[in-house]
Every structure is written in C-alpha cells, then in structure tokens.
Write a structure and sequence with these properties.
204 residues; alpha+beta; membrane; six-stranded antiparallel beta sheet; single chain; 2 domains; Secreted protein; 34% helix; elongated; transmembrane helix; transmembrane
Length: 204
C-alpha cells in the first residue's frame, strides 16, 4: 500500500508543478495589468497637468498681436490667443480671414523669394507640443495635411506694413477652410518673458 501511494504521489508532482506555474502566470499577469493601468493613469494625469499648467490669463488677441509686432486685417474673425509660461514662454494667436484677404496677408509676411509650403510630414495623432493650440479649442496645425501650409517670419524679414514691426520669430500655419475662409495659426517663443494684462473679471 505504501509503495502504491508513493508512486501515486510521484505521478502527481508534474500536475502540481503545472498548477504552481499556472498560478504564477496568473499572478504575474495580474500584477502587470495593475502596473499598466497605473502607468496609463499617471501618464494621462501628467498630460492633463502639462496641458492645463502655466497658462496666463489676460493674454487677449489684441495684446498678443501687439506682442508679436503684427498688423492684422480688420476682417479677422474668431480671434483666439494664449500665453504659456515655462523655461521659455510661448504665445499663441489664431484667427480666420476671408480667403482673398488671407492670401494677401500671408504674402505680406513671407520673406522675399519664399512661400508657404505644404505639410508633407505631419505629426501623428495625439502630438502634444509644449504649448498646444488645443488650449484654444483648435486642432494642432502640425497634424493637419489637407489645406495646410506652413512657414515663418522673423524680425527684419519683411518691410510690409503687416510685418515690418515683427520683433521675434513667428511660426505661421494657414489652413483653408470649407467655409471660404482661411484659419491662421501663429506661435512664437517669447524671450525675455512678457506679462499679459490682468484678466477682466467675469461679467465686466
């Protein structure tokens, strides 16, 4: 009887080993899933924090236009602006112009012998620049291909009324819209830092 029992126990060892291995796999898999979920949450929280952090109130379109040293056509609508502080501050400005006005404006901001080019190498979906236009409720222009052109202007590049007072380098993006207009996106690094005016109280 004892010999028979020993044989039975010896035969059950592989089965017990498989149970132990399976248990370890389940435990490791569960631990990996928990760590992965925690990592995703931390990443999501960090992205939200970076997106919401350090935006200064009071950066109106009028103030930002003056900061850039630009003249903007009176036909500009849906004007939006933002100012984010950091190691290097960044200012954003966007507005919509009727297409003919946009073409004249973009030409006036293009250095002689240059023109805006298409976005042939767009950023992937989910691209997060340091100061995203999504803060203004807009898509990131670097991710758009259809109807998108890009260029830039720096101090001293043009002598036109629209850009002769430009005091820093400005990235320019222009997207043709289906409504017959063109949305202009402008972004510039600000050194030294500037201080937007205090935001007006709500309802004032």
């Amino acid at each position: 009887m004892t010999a028979s029992l020993d044989r039975s126990e010896r035969l059950s060892l592989p089965a017990r080993s498989l149970i132990v291995v399976a248990t370890l796999v389940v435990l490791v898999g569960g631990a990996f899933l928990v760590v992965n979920q925690l990592t995703d949450k931390v990443t999501s929280d960090q992205v939200k924090k970076e997106k919401d952090c350090c935006w200064v109130s009071g950066a109106t379109p009028a103030w930002t236009i003056k900061l850039f040293g630009l003249q903007v056509p009176k036909t500009a609508t849906d004007q939006r602006a933002g100012y984010k502080t950091g190691r290097i501050d960044i200012a954003l400005l966007s507005f919509v112009l009727p297409r003919p006005d946009a073409e004249k404006y973009l030409k006036a901001l293009s250095p002689e012998g240059t023109k805006l080019i298409g976005n042939d190498h767009p950023k992937e979906k989910g691209y997060r620049p340091t100061a995203p236009f999504s803060h203004l409720g807009l898509p990131e222009p670097e991710t758009i291909v259809t109807g998108m052109r890009q260029g830039g202007v720096c101090e001293g590049d043009v002598s036109t009324p629209e850009g002769k007072m430009v005091s820093r380098c400005i990235d320019i993006f222009a997207q043709v819209l289906g409504s017959g207009g063109t949305r202009i996106y402008l972004r510039s690094s600000i050194e030294p830092s500037a201080t937007p005016p205090a935001a007006e109280p709500a309802g004032s």
